[in-house]
Amino acid sequence: MAELDARSSLATALKATYARIVSPSEDTTGAADLANLQAALDDGGTVQLVAGADYYFNGALALPSNSALTAYGATLHGLAVGNLFRTKTALPARSVTDAGATSGSTTLTSATAAFTAADVGAKVSVRGAGPHQSTNDGQSWYGTITAVTNATTVTIDKAAGTTITGAQLEIFPDRVHDVAVLGGTWSIEAEPADGHASTGNYFNALCSAFRRVDRLILRDLSISVVGTSAEGGKFAISIADATNITVDNIVFTGTPVTACT
User: Could you tell me which residues come within 8 angstroms of residue 5 by beta carbon, excluding any fewer than 6 positions away?
Assistant: First the structure.
């Protein structure tokens, strides 16, 4: 057993020290490069792309904990409407549409969320249950589950700002940590309609989405996003609920004015 533990520790150390090189597949549909690179990232450690090469993606790269992607000299083409890269915690683990909340209360209810004790500590977002905006619609109510009463009722660490029923509730997975993206030209080549896909999911307007992450480094990136000024192609880098962040030497090209953080 001690020998197996030693081997496992050595393998982990080697992953952290040596980069694995992922060569381009030359499949311009985006399926092969996405699958190959995602598999390498999921294995942890440092993944290096080939300088001067082109990589194509028909979906988003999802960065897990303890991962570093080095892309100096490579060009990464995003062919699908939506993110080109994001943390694994950017999207919810599950989502329902029957959430209820009362302004001033920390109680959240849902007949179908199937809450369990394992949800304590999870982040949640309830659309429309946050503080009022100028339109009198509530913003999202975002907080942490502190207690589970039963399968339909939980307590959140902060009170709702708006009374609501039949709301969309998103329950997010655990946080990720120690994520780095270094170098590369990141090119979003599919324009969202007016910044959004027809589904109305605002995430489709983001070139990148880093959520619920601790110790994040973004350095030496060149980001190009297509789109109409003040409409599609905005939000090149989007970061929220993150700690210990380093963002350094980022160049925005493409859509004038709107390629921003």
Answer: none
